[in-house]
């Protein structure tokens, strides 16, 4: 009983703290993505950021990290019928396109069976692999990779 009460109190304190961090230090008002735009109006959309082009293979930060996409992907369609990513990264074409092949994990089902073609759970590449822009980070990130990857 005591443990549950402590846990509840801890999560409540956490919640309140999270809310306080959303308050503007000067005005005491809540921050929101809407900024100063009144609620009944739509804020202008942010400008699309320029993708970083051809920056070369990026270092990985942890062992099972999906590598970052180091090139533009504009126009690379992925739907039920076509997958442009596989046109370069599939095992058939990778060598002739000078592109890295998808690794064997991309053929595995969640029950550990290896299929003859890309596994459905690895079909939509951009679920895991993300292209980069030179945008300012939204929040500070102090993550450091494990020793062996530094
Ligand atoms: C026209 C061929 C081509 C297409 C299409 C293509 N890529 Fe690539 N991709 C490459 C090449 C070449 C590299 C290696 C870049 C280098 O060595 O600088 C690469 C690198 C990558 C890497 C980095 C791999 C690593 O080991 O770090 C990822 C991830 C990736 N591509 C994902 C994608 C995704 C997702 C798509 C589809 C949205 C895609 N690519 C479409 C040619 C392509
Ligand atoms: C569910 C997440 C996920 C999806 C979806 C996915 N990948 Fe990956 N990919 C990973 C992870 C994690 C790694 C690194 C570890 C590994 O090889 O499994 C990786 C590694 C890679 C590599 C580097 C291979 C190597 O040997 O270093 C390439 C290239 C790649 N993926 C391309 C693709 C392409 C193209 C697609 C779409 C057809 C895709 N991935 C879909 C998670 C994913």
From TrEMBL:
GO molecular function annotation: metal ion binding
A Gene Ontology term for the protein's cellular component: periplasmic space
Binding-site positions, heme c 1:
71, 85, 88-89
* UniProt key word Metal-binding: yes
Q: Name one Pfam family in it.
A: NapB
Gene3D superfamilies assigned: Flavocytochrome C3, Chain A
Enumerate the InterPro entries for this protein.
Multihaem_cyt_sf (IPR036280), NapB (IPR005591)
| Keyword tags | Electron transport, Heme, Iron, Metal-binding, Periplasm, Signal, Transport
Main location group = periplasm
Domain of life from the UniProt record: Bacteria
Question: Which residues are the signal sequence here?
Answer: 1-18
| PTM summary | Binds 2 heme C groups per subunit.
Write out the annotated subcellular location. Answer: Periplasm
Per UniProt, heme c 2 binds at 106, 125, 128-129
Output one GO BP term. anaerobic respiration
Which family, according to the similarity comment?
Belongs to the NapB family.
Under the subunit heading, UniProt states: Component of the periplasmic nitrate reductase NapAB complex composed of NapA and NapB.
Q: What does this protein do?
A: Electron transfer subunit of the periplasmic nitrate reductase complex NapAB. Receives electrons from the membrane-anchored tetraheme c-type NapC protein and transfers these to NapA subunit, thus allowing electron flow between membrane and periplasm. Essential for periplasmic nitrate reduction with nitrate as the terminal electron acceptor.
**Name this polypeptide is given:** Periplasmic nitrate reductase, electron transfer subunit
| Organism listed in the record | Zobellella endophytica
């Amino acid at each position: 009983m005591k443990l549950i009460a402590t846990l509840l109190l801890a999560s409540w304190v956490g919640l309140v703290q999270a809310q306080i961090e959303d308050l503007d230090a000067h005005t005491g008002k809540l921050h929101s993505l809407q900024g100063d735009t009144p609620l009944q109006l739509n804020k202008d959309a942010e400008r699309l950021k320029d993708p970083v082009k051809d920056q070369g293979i990026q270092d990985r930060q942890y062992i099972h990290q999906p590598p970052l996409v180091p090139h533009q992907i504009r126009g690379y369609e992925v739907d039920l019928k076509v997958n442009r990513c596989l046109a370069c990264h599939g095992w058939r074409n990778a060598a002739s396109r000078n592109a890295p092949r998808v690794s064997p994990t991309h053929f595995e089902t969640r029950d550990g069976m290896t299929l003859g073609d890309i596994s459905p759970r690895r079909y939509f590449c951009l679920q895991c692999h993300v292209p980069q822009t030179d945008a300012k980070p939204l929040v500070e990130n102090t993550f450091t990779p494990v020793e062996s990857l530094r």
